[in-house]
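Students often ask why we bother encoding 3D structure as a string. The short answer is that it lets us treat folding as translation between two languages. Here is a chain of 564 residues written in the first language.
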Amino acid sequence: MRSHAIASAAAALLVVLVCCALPASAKYSVEWKSDLKLTMADGVVLDADACVPKSQKAGETFPLIVMPNSWGMPVFEYVGKVLEWCENGYIMVEYETRGWYFSGGEIDTAGFLDQKDVSTVITWALAQQGWNQNADKIGMLGISYGAGLSLLSAAHDDRVTTAVSMSGWGDIQNALWENQSPSLVWGELLMLLGKLVGKETPLLSEMWHDLLTHHNVSYVKKWASWRSPDHYLDLLNKRQVPIFMSNNMEDRLFKPQSSLGFWEALETKNKFMLLNQGIHATAELGGLVDLPHNFVWTKARLWLDYWLRGEPTGIMEEPPVQFQLRNDHSVRVLFSQWPDHTVERTRFALSPRGSGTFGGLVEIKRGAAAAAAAAAGSDTISFAKTSGMTAGLPVVGEILQTFVDVPILAELRLVRRQHGIVYTTPQLAQNTRLCGSPNMTLHLQPSQQNFQIVAYLYKMDSLGIGTLLSHSPLTRWADSQNMTETAEAAAAAAAAQQPAPTVGKLNFRSLCADVDAGEHLALGIDMYALLYKPSNEDPNLKLTFSYGGSGDGAVVLELPLNAI
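And here it is in the second language, the structure alphabet:
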């Protein structure tokens, strides 16, 4: 009880400080309601705060916005925006989801209980006397965990008019297990937060262990699908719910390429997508008290004013897909649709390095076969934890890259050739922009069943210094489904008592960056990164890459390029 009182006092102090910091542009006087206790359907009690504007004329009603907390954040996470928007005519409710801090129950990780709780909170807010609610105008908004719950509620609750997702997810399996590569660092951080300030279920720890060891995979996938908005795309598309999404291009947790793929699959006519520079939730956090002015929250407010208040804010006339440029954060690259016809998907065939320093990236002319562009041959690398390439020091590296302009670099001429391989294009003839999600198809022969690949996309200067632009992992376990092999190859391999040749597909993190004329594009491949749990650390593990195969047998890198 004492700790709860301390938390309540801290929240009250924060309200006072935020009120002092807000600009004096309020349209309404408001009533702040703190330390609310909301009883859910199963009896669990959740902590909540609310702010209610006071009507200025008879019959005036207000839209409702509900905001679930982020993973590990307390109930007063959004207090700045709650007060600001309440003073501008919104009923605001922020609440602490089950299992966190002083809310009852155990962490449900956006499961059925959490999803049902959202609807219960909405029902509670609509039932309050004297609030002058407009029951036909209800918005959901959240960051991270709250963002995922907002999208899920838009699928399941017909009362939700629109949803705003900031640093949320479409597929939670992809977040923690992209290409069957356990997201070791971010997963451990989430588990640690759950232990420190939440009440985790034993099942959560068990499933995290199963992901790291590749056990009970079918159940883990089902568990994840129930918590993934893309599992309910048919419901979202049927309802035609207007969706606003914001994700960050250096986010190693909820990857931008996954969110962009989810956005593409949404068939609603009214959807909006911001892709920002930043790691998980950083592009949005500064706007919680509007210090400084925040692009994401400004656009979100315009979106909500349009859909919940009917105001002509201009947001619907803006291009619906907006990438923030890495080279100049003041620039937004705008697209009227996605995929957009102005972005050319340029394919490159990989060719062997032989006795040289680098292999080649040879552009495949439109309509030409990939194999025709690549020289025949092969290269072999073996496992090591250091190759000379890296995805950066987890969390710290991405922060320095985004906010201090300290890029993640590699001296590509010095990459240990027995443990990594680098492919480069000729010097670019003109300034080039990469905007979108690269991908790659690999044909390889492993020496053992289990292995991991990490591919890095660089821009490289004339001295061989590579600046990391994006990367992607891919992990093979004995029963992996992210790689394929033919029946003939499997039979031949069984007879030879070695793994079959396999084909792997990698989807790189979305990016938007300019590369200058005279620089090179470079692709690096090794077998280890600190961010991911490898399936095999045997130093005798080897991978052989084959080039110049017939038909679809070439190794191909596809990049979203545009001359500028």
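Translate back mentally: The longest strand covers residues 465-476. Keep this in mind for the problem set.
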